[in-house]
């Protein structure tokens, strides 16, 4: 049994640890949380000295226990997303009294958790999606892992889970990938999908910041999203369900943002759509396409080209691919306007009618880009610039080539990080 | 490895099973899902006959394995909410190909789950909170368990988890409570807190309806919420964060509704408030008080008394205590107006200034009612009718007496169900 005193101490230490390592929401919030942490101790005084002495995540403490029963490899063409996993996993426990414990790489194995563990009840879970690629020179590379670490920490902080030094976790992930690199098929489009996950492991039913947590990373070899080339998707604009709201947590990669979206997706699929398009506001502006960020290419009446995606207003996941597309557009699409702005569906419908909606596509780690053929909006189709038989527009094609070129090492680039 | 075909079959069977047992969102949604289920089979035809033949949850199939190491009992005064658990737990597995498997009561034990299990990533989890009471006649009773079962099914359906026959689960819960009834202290205000939980157990990373799930129930002996009598709480109106929104899932008891609320609660606590008051809309109307429903007692200028709580508009948890308070008010508070309507904070502030805000309280399973002393709204205090030194108003006191009177069997009532 964890005592109430421990629990309080745990909660406070968790919050302090986060605030120490990570920029807080606001200075005011930091100050008030600090006050709460030090002033509202009911039974145990948690001294700041004690909290500051908690061990941080340290890659140098890693221990490795290799499997004695290595798995066979599946033929690459049979790989399905997230169905098979490699030989090993990385696990790092955290407690509010001991900080981050020594990281361990062990054989891939089940987690054994008390049924009262908070991850089963209150959704204490956040994750990342990233990939390791086998480059043309035979090296294995990650793509912008620093961006994943920053977002992982932001997600953790938003749901009162502990934060950590992202560079240390990158070092540990590199070691894990090195150990299991035989699982990465040596073919373009294939990769090792990495799933860093952080869950709350406190074994009590009170609703509050967890006093313990487990960070783990598992790896799944995956094939190309479009094994036979692009296949443009049809989306249905979802107006009855809303994915995210200002003041919510829609910009974080937390479990809470996924489950409520399944029924709306099944609903859209039931009418033959590949995915749903989330919209928000009275102007019904698109926010995300399924679980991808949303981009459009528009031409204004003067012929000016524009690439637009919704701004990071708190309802949009700050995608690594989204950021990469924006950066590449700003540096390589000469003369284009690159906008983070809302594009209400009425504007897109009008542009489509005028022949000025040139392209629409989703962007995400799984597919890089996913061209959109049409959007059904209140029963009316908005066609997104693709000719009959055409499966991808010029911009989507360019973006995919540029990004994959960096991921697979064709083009030396600071975004591509050798393991 | 679960094959893609199985997964598709699993998803469809899950949805069909839900739709067969439970009222769907709308007829249109049912029809379209049915169409999807039967028409969009890529590799395996899931026949409706097969799905309809899936075994439902059946209490008669229960097997019981008793513990050989019974736990000692904690002194009642040391009980802390959700910290200690009884000897046994109830578990029922579900798969989309086999339906509900035979229920099992076993010794309380850890769950062993693959790290790729969907409950750890996408928040596939919902739960209930209910209690078993030792009545004055020595019998053990549940309080309105049918309401919990209905809500549990609604929560499950909203996040694509399987539904079940609530009456069968009540029978199973009765058996579990009977087996562990020695843990219920024989004293007023004590009870056995029951936590039915349903989690998705599919072991793949694709985002979709889980093909397997686990329903389990654990029991924790708890003491009274106010061991030394009522203690009125001070709330801070939260305007920077939003708990729920139209088109979301704020009216379901799912993990997704809890984690994003921790930081705002800690934030309010940091300024000395016991809880935060969730508000919504431009009119800033209260929706919930922490994790409780929100009630006010108002007197209009003519002296008419009114009990008001926000309507079930999709952002409000349909609390069993909420429903009970409304029902008791409508049948026992003669001459009162009982309203499900918004009460914007400006209205409450005005009423408070006029001396017409008579009471405010939260309502929930844990505390029954929780009187509110003041609400801080944009830095200004709204005092909620309590005199200095007074810890509860008349209505809150009456409601607590009436409801506990039924829970503990002082008053024979259909809401109180003997195990």
TrEMBL record, chains A, B:
<dbReference type="GO" id="GO:0004084">
    <property type="term" value="F:branched-chain-amino-acid transaminase activity"/>
</dbReference>
<feature type="modified residue" description="N6-(pyridoxal phosphate)lysine">
    <location>
        <position position="253"/>
    </location>
</feature>
<dbReference type="InterPro" id="IPR001544">
    <property type="entry name" value="Aminotrans_IV"/>
</dbReference>
<dbReference type="InterPro" id="IPR018300">
    <property type="entry name" value="Aminotrans_IV_CS"/>
</dbReference>
<dbReference type="InterPro" id="IPR043132">
    <property type="entry name" value="BCAT-like_C"/>
</dbReference>
<dbReference type="InterPro" id="IPR043131">
    <property type="entry name" value="BCAT-like_N"/>
</dbReference>
<comment type="similarity">
    <text>Belongs to the class-IV pyridoxal-phosphate-dependent aminotransferase family.</text>
</comment>
<keyword id="KW-0028">Amino-acid biosynthesis</keyword>
<dbReference type="GO" id="GO:0009099">
    <property type="term" value="P:L-valine biosynthetic process"/>
</dbReference>
<dbReference type="GO" id="GO:0005739">
    <property type="term" value="C:mitochondrion"/>
</dbReference>
<dbReference type="Pfam" id="PF01063">
    <property type="entry name" value="Aminotran_4"/>
</dbReference>
<keyword id="KW-0808">Transferase</keyword>
<protein>
    <recommendedName>
        <fullName>Branched-chain-amino-acid aminotransferase</fullName>
        <ecNumber>2.6.1.42</ecNumber>
    </recommendedName>
</protein>
<dbReference type="InterPro" id="IPR033939">
    <property type="entry name" value="BCAT_family"/>
</dbReference>
<dbReference type="GO" id="GO:0009098">
    <property type="term" value="P:L-leucine biosynthetic process"/>
</dbReference>
<keyword id="KW-0663">Pyridoxal phosphate</keyword>
<dbReference type="InterPro" id="IPR036038">
    <property type="entry name" value="Aminotransferase-like"/>
</dbReference>
<dbReference type="InterPro" id="IPR005786">
    <property type="entry name" value="B_amino_transII"/>
</dbReference>
<keyword id="KW-0100">Branched-chain amino acid biosynthesis</keyword>
<keyword id="KW-0032">Aminotransferase</keyword>
């Amino acid at each position: 049994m964890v005592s109430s005193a421990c629990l309080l101490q745990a909660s406070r230490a968790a919050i302090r640890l986060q605030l120490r390592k990570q920029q807080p929401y606001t200075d005011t919030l930091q100050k008030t949380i600090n006050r709460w942490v030090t002033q509202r101790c009911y039974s145990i005084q948690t001294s700041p000295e004690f909290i500051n002495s908690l061990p941080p995540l340290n890659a140098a403490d890693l221990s490795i226990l290799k499997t004695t029963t290595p798995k066979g490899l599946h033929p690459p063409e049979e790989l399905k997303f997230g169905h098979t996993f490699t030989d090993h996993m990385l696990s790092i426990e955290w407690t509010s009294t001991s900080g981050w414990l020594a990281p361990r790489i062990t054989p891939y194995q089940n987690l054994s958790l008390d049924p009262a563990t908070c991850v089963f009840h209150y959704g204490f879970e956040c994750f990342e999606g990233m990939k390791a690629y086998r480059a043309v020179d035979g090296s294995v590379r990650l793509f912008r892992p620093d961006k994943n670490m920053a977002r992982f920490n932001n997600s953790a902080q938003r749901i009162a889970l502990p934060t950590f030094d992202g560079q240390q976790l990158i070092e540990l992930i590199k070691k894990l990938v090195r150990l299991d690199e035989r699982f990465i098929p040596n073919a373009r489009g294939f990769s090792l999908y990495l799933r860093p996950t952080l869950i709350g492991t406190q074994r009590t039913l009170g609703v509050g910041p967890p006093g313990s947590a487990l960070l783990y990373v598992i790896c799944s070899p995956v094939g190309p999203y479009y094994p036979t080339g692009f296949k443009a998707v049809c989306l249905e604009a979802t107006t009855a369900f809303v994915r995210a709201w200002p003041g919510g947590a829609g910009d974080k990669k937390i479990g809470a943002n996924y489950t409520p979206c399944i029924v709306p997706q099944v609903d859209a699929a039931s009418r033959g759509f590949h995915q749903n398009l989330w919209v928000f506001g009275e102007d019904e502006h698109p926010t995300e396409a399924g679980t991808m960020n949303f981009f459009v290419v528009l031409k204004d009446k003067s012929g000016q080209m524009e690439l637009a995606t919704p701004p990071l207003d708190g309802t949009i996941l700050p995608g690594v691919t989204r950021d990469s597309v924006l950066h590449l557009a700003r540096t390589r699409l000469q003369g284009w306007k690159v906008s983070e702005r809302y594009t209400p569906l009425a504007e897109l419908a009008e542009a489509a009618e005028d022949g000025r909606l040139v392209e629409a596509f989703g962007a995400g780690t799984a597919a890089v880009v996913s061209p959109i053929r049409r959007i059904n909006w209140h029963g009316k189709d908005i066609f997104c610039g693709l000719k009959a038989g055409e499966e991808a527009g010029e911009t989507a094609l360019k973006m995919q080539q540029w990004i994959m070129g960096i991921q697979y090492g064709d083009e030396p680039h600071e975004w591509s990080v050798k393991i």
